Fold:
Amino acid sequence: MPESNTGGRGNRFMEDGDSLTWNDLWVTVSGGRSILRGLTGYARPGELLAIMGPSGCGKTTLLDTLAGRLSANTRQAGDILINGRNQALAYGTSAYVTQDDALITTLTVREAVYYSAQLQLPDSMTKPEKKARAEMTIREMGLQDAMDTRIAPKPLFLDEPTSGLDSAASYYVMSRIASLNRKDDIRRTIIASIHQPSFEVFQLFTNLCLLSAGKTVYFGPVSAANEFFALNGFPCPKEVIDILVKSYKSSDLYQMVQKEIAQICKQRDGALEKTKRQARFFSQCHVLTRRSFINMSRDHGYYWMRLGIYISLSVVLGTVFSGIGTDYGSIQARGSLTMFVVSFLTFMTIGGFPSFIEDMKVFERERLNGHYGVTAFVVGNTLSALPFLALVALIPGAITYFPPGLHKGYEHFFFFVTVLFVCMMLVESLMMIVASLVPNFLMGIIVGAGVQGLMILVGGFFRLPTDLPKPLLKYPFYHIAFHKYAYQALFKNEFEGMTFPNVQGGNGGSQSLPVKKF
Structure:
């Protein structure tokens, strides 16, 4: 058992970690319904606080509130103090292990923990040291669900870390978490919500915060919980919650908690330091690029299935338009082929949307834990996608370009491939934006398809710009549709300098086809 809470420790607990206190904490959602109702408590370094209660009592909401992760539609009232100060947790100084952790499924356990260590640990540590720390974490956690816990944060929040585990595995995981309290001579503040723990797991905690219907039923040492409930007549009648809440409010334990909070608040420690614990920006970009590249190469749905579909369809296109020649009718065939290739390659990008959503889940979790920022994620994701997009543009582009006999000359071919590559890069970025705004992959596919369909429609191929209605469709949609610029570039690349028989003239002659500005 960790040592009990006493007031005689002086400032010792303030030297290692960060203390949290909350007083008269209320959380309400839209409509005025209260989730948390006047909660009061504290968490100190070197101790393990258990938040318990039935489903829906507010355990996760309390964790979210203390960690500063409440959603936008909730309102918070009351005081949350860190080291006796009214301040927010500095970026990267705390970690939150969610109940449903988001991980990259294509990575092995070793790779997932290793990349996490590279992102979180400072550049002052060498790569072998980071690798050794990651492997030590894997061994300590026994490859369980809690293996991705932050290695060295001070405030640590865990939402039901034993969910889905049997009693033996739960005890092993919680015992390793409890050992973090004093690991490496650092006393950490650990707060965990837990549902129906075994007696052995329950005894690992220092303090207990028991909630029901958003109210505090009990807050105090684990060792005193049985005595408190026994004094209040368990087994209890139906109105046990109200009895316990009133009894707790009038008990000596409640008064002791109030005095403890007042004492902690008086011992005002320094402001929470916003120390730089993460790797540098370029190191983050390097690690994220490498990790994302491995994920993309192993996830068949990311690019490989699309590449297979592109190649299959390109073979069909090359067969259908094979040897289209240079007669007058080939003008329409060349334009149709070019338009279809651009539209189809970009439109099929929505096929990778489910993978984008999974990436966004991992990014959101790691960003909130301070591993890296938005810029590093965008750079890493973009750089890792470049080889795959180049492959997707080059192979189907070659199959589509040469069998039909499009404009000869490798400079024209490489310009054709470059335009396809840039278009897919643009659409990939567009899909990432949609994924960040619409987290549901089904709705994201619908939104992404709708946006691309609109861009293709007003791109100038189906209707000339002069025929488009000016409100909205021409101004501004026609001018912001990237398909417009792709069509214009490829049409100019294809037709400029070529000659076609002037069949309509009736004289059997031929003339150079002028390329008009679109």
Notes: The chain is about 50% helix and 15% strand. The two ends are 78 Å apart (CA to CA). Residues 302 and 352 are 5 Å apart (CA to CA).
